[in-house]
Each structure stands twice: as structure tokens, then as C-alpha cells.
Amino acid sequence: MPAGDRDIYELLADYAGALRDGGVATFLRSLSRTETQRLTHSTDFRQASRIVQILNSIGFAGKVVTPDVGLFTSRVNARIASRYKKAKKPLWNRCTMRMVL
Known about the structure:
With 101 residues, this protein is mainly alpha-helical. The protein has helices spanning 8-21, 24-30, 33-41, 43-59, 70-87, and strands at 92-93, 98-99. The protein folds into 2 domains: 8-63; 70-99, no CATH class. It has a two-stranded antiparallel sheet.
């Protein structure tokens, strides 16, 4: 990212590139004090950065992967069962047919 005082449009272009590449933290560290002050007071940058975020989310919408919690749940259930076997307690309450925790 270029150093020095950049205008709002250059900052927006750099922000869009950083958002696309996953380097927002690097972009924020590259800002000078005057650039930071200019960004905090600029409504144009705020509106344009929101548009860039929306376009970025639309562009990567097909590549978003939601985590599958089925494997996690089965591992937790197996660990609970293992602990109860080690403690030699009944795993199920026979009266209510619920797992005893």
C-alpha cells in the first residue's frame, strides 16, 4: 500500500483491495494520522466502503461455507458417554429416559 497522504478515492481503492485480499488490518496500520482523521470525518468514504462491503459479500456469496456441527455434536456425545462409563454410572435415567448429566 502506498505511503503518504492519499485522497479519499485512493484510500477507498486501497480499502477495497485490502477487503478483497483479507488485509484490512494491514490497511489500517498503513494509515497516517491525517488520513485517519480524514476518514473518520468523511461521509463519502463511509457510504462507499459500505457499498464495497456489500459488493464483496455478493462476489464471495457462492464460496461461503457454513460449518457442519454434526461431527462436533457426535464427538461431544461420545466424550460424555466415555466419562459416564469410566465413572460407572448409568448413562440413562430409567424412569424418565433422559440422559443423566
